[in-house]
C-alpha cells in the first residue's frame, strides 16, 4: 500500500474513518472527504502524527455533483491518479414503513447511497481506465441481500450498490480495474444514531445483547481485498457478527 493513492468518502466517522486509519498505517496517501471538516481535520492530525501519513481532507457532500468537480480541482495534480476508491459514505433514516415514511428522507438516503456513489465512480473511473490501474471498493450491506422490516428504502439502496458493483465490473471487464462490494452486517458506529436522528438511547439498543462487528473489522477486510495480487478480484465479501444470519435475523442474549 506504500504511496498508493486512496480516496475514501465518508471518512469522518465509523467504517470510513477506521479504513483511513488502516491504510495510513500501511503507508498509503489519503484523500479523505465528508461534510464534517472538524472531524476530518482531527483525523488528519492524528494520522500525520501517528503514521507520518500524507493526508488531504476535503469538505464534500457526495450528493452535490458540482462539489465533486470542485474537490477534484483542489486535489494536487500528481495525486489525481487514484489507485483505490472506497465509496463508503452512506446512511439510513428512520425505521418507518414505506406508507408512513418521510419522502424527504427517502431522497436523502437514495441521493447519498446511490447517486453519490455513482457520481464519484463516474468522476474517478475514467482516469483509472486511462492509467490501466485501479480498484473500486463499494460499501454495500447485508441489507442489499435481504430486506428487513422498516428498512425498505435503505435496503433498496444497498441492493442498488450490489447491482452497480456487478454492472461496473462488466463495464470495465476489459481493463485491469477491480470492483469489490463489501456487505457488512451490524457494525457499531454512529450509523444508528444518525438513523434515529440523534436518539443515542434508541441507537444503543441496536447493539444490545450481541457482539457487533467493529469498524476496524471492516477496515481490515477493505485492506485485504485491496492487497491481494493484481490478477485476483474479490467481487463480494459478506460479513456478519457471529449471531447475525441476515439483516433481520439476529440472536440476542
Ligand atoms: N454500521 C453498520 O451497521 C453498517 C452495516 C453495513 C453497511 N454500512 C455502510 O457503511 C457505510 C459507513 O457507515 P458507518 O456505519 O461507518 O456510519 P457512520 O459512522 O454514520 O459514518 C457515515 C459516514 O458517511 C458520511 N456521509 C453521510 N452522508 C454523506 C454525504 N451526503 N456526503 C458525504 N459524506 C456523507 C458521514 O460523514 P459526514 O456526516 O461528515 O458527511 C460519515 O463519515 C455506509 O455506507 C453504511 O450504509 C454500515
Summarize the model shown.
With 253 residues, the protein is α/β, with parallel strands linked by helices.
Structural notes for this entry:
- The protein is built from eight helices and nine strands.
- With 253 residues, it is α/β, with parallel strands linked by helices.
- The protein has one domain: NAD(P)-binding Rossmann-like Domain (Rossmann fold, 3-Layer(aba) Sandwich), CATH 3.40.50.720.
- The strands form two sheets. It has a seven-stranded parallel sheet, with helices on both faces. Strands 8-9 form a two-stranded antiparallel ribbon.
- The longest helix has 29 residues.
- The radius of gyration is 17 Å and the shape is globular.
- The protein binds NADP nicotinamide-adenine-dinucleotide phosphate.
- NADP nicotinamide-adenine-dinucleotide phosphate binds next to helix 1, helix 4 and helix 6.
Bound small molecules, which ones? Answer: NADP nicotinamide-adenine-dinucleotide phosphate
The stretches of 5 or more residues where confidence is low (pLDDT under 50) are none
Q: Structural class of the secondary elements? A: alpha/beta
Major sheet summary line? 7 strands, parallel
InterPro entries: NAD(P)-bd_dom_sf, Sc_DH/Rdtase_CS, SDR_fam
Protein name: SDR family NAD(P)-dependent oxidoreductase
GO molecular function: oxidoreductase activity, acting on the CH-OH group of donors, NAD or NADP as acceptor
Pfam families: adh_short (PF00106)
Amino acid at each position: 500500500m506504500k504511496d498508493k493513492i486512496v480516496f475514501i468518502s465518508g471518512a469522518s466517522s465509523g467504517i470510513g474513518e477506521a479504513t483511513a486509519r488502516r491504510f495510513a498505517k500501511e503507508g498509503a496517501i489519503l484523500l479523505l472527504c465528508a461534510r464534517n471538516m472538524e472531524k476530518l481535520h482531527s483525523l488528519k492530525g492524528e494520522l500525520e502524527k501517528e503514521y507520518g501519513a500524507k493526508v488531504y481532507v476535503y469538505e464534500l457532500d457526495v450528493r452535490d455533483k458540482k462539489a465533486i468537480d470542485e474537490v477534484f480541482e483542489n486535489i494536487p495534480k500528481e495525486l489525481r491518479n487514484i489507485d483505490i476508491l472506497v465509496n463508503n459514505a452512506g446512511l439510513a433514516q428512520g425505521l418507518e414503513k414505506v406508507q408512513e415514511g418521510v419522502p424527504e428522507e427517502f431522497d436523502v438516503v437514495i441521493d447519498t447511497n446511490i447517486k453519490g456513489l455513482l457520481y464519484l465512480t463516474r468522476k474517478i473511473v475514467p482516469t483509472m481506465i486511462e492509467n490501466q490501474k485501479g480498484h473500486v471498493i463499494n460499501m454495500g450491506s447485508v441489507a442489499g441481500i435481504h430486506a428487513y422490516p422498516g428498512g425498505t428504502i435503505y435496503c433498496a439502496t444497498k441492493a442498488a450498490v450490489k447491482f452497480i458493483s456487478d454492472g461496473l465490473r462488466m463495464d470495465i471487464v476489459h481493463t485491469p480495474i477491480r470492483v469489490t462490494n463489501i456487505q457488512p452486517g451490524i457494525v457499531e458506529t454512529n450509523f444508528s444514531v444518525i438513523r434515529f436522528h440523534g436518539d443515542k438511547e434508541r441507537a444503543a439498543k441496536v447493539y444490545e445483547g450481541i457482539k457487533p462487528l467493529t469498524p476496524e473489522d471492516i477496515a481490515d477486510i477493505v485492506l485485504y481485498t485491496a492487497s491481494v495480487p493484481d490478477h485476483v478480484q474479490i467481487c463480494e465479501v459478506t460479513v456478519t457478527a457471529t449471531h447475525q444470519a441476515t439483516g433481520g435475523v439476529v440472536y440476542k442474549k
